[in-house]
Amino acid sequence: MNREEYQQLIQNVSDGKATDAELALYNRYFHAYQNAQEWEESEMGPQQELKLKLDQLVLGQIRVKPVLSLQNIFLKIAVAALVFLAVGIFLYRYTHPDVKENEYAKHAAIVPGSNKAYLTLGNGKRIVLTDAAIGQLAKEAGVEISKDRDGQLVYAIKDQVASDRTLLNTIETPKGGRYQVLLPDGTKVWLNAASKLTYPVSFTGNDSRKVELTGEAYFEVAKNDRLPFKVKTVFQEVEVLGTHFNVMAYADEKMIRTTLLEGSVKVNTGHQQSLLYPGQQADLNKENQHIRISTALKNKSVAWKNGYFMFTDDTIEDIMKQVGRWYDLEVEYHGNRSKERFGGIYSMDKDIHELMKGLELTGMIHYKIEGRRIIVMD
Where is the Protein FecR C-terminal domain (predicted)? Predict the structure, then answer.
């Protein structure tokens, strides 16, 4: 990949226009950067060596540290008054060669989230999916519920059973957990941390496929013209026939955001109804229940599903909400909160200390970790 191709890749990721193949390529470079060992010392002074390494990155010589195209990224972010976190991490790791594993060991207990969730069956039985063995977990209303080798929860209709009531299941992820579900109609659901999805064991005999969500989930809905798929949250209902979309409806967020990647969806609050097309998002203000339609950063909305944080013009509160959910931490603020906006991409399977040190090196915040509490200071 030459310099121009690499800069175009960075541009596409930054603009939210990257394809799945481009995202995979970028993530490969990003992981290679984060996992690489400290560069060997040379006879040059630290400032000269740092400049050379940055120049090599800009020129596309990315074999050793293939993550940043600083010329392109900094130009875009400087204009937008953003701070690119990965640069802070880069500078910290390079200019602090004395910081070895013992520095990160201080926070060894703060590990990234993983595949973990709890399933509550229609009869009230609760199953810890993290510990459950691969294979069949239960059978309700003619539907077999199992856990596959990839850790996904799978519903498969085995017998058509008539029932005078609808059995509901609930899958719930804690902070620091996420999970994937394959519903009996073929719909795939990815559930983010601190989220809950309630749904019928079978959609047979219903006039729609209705589920209820708190938190955040990404849906790939199986097409069925006769049975629309509906996602109900506290203030709205999203109706689709077959499409790919993301709904973010956390209780501690000021708005509910629905982002459409493919197909079309109808967002209904009871007072206002809006139709979304691919590449659009609907932000529902919880206070006045007004929906605002805008162009979406599609890659950002599903970054969590693909295993990374993506910050674009985000406040420190925006960032720390995501960090707190994924690392299962409580967040406290001491002093004035920074009004600056931040941007960057960071792998979700990395040590929290690297992310926070990148933020700290912007000069806008300081932090400390006490147990399972992270304190953000000015």
Answer: 308-376
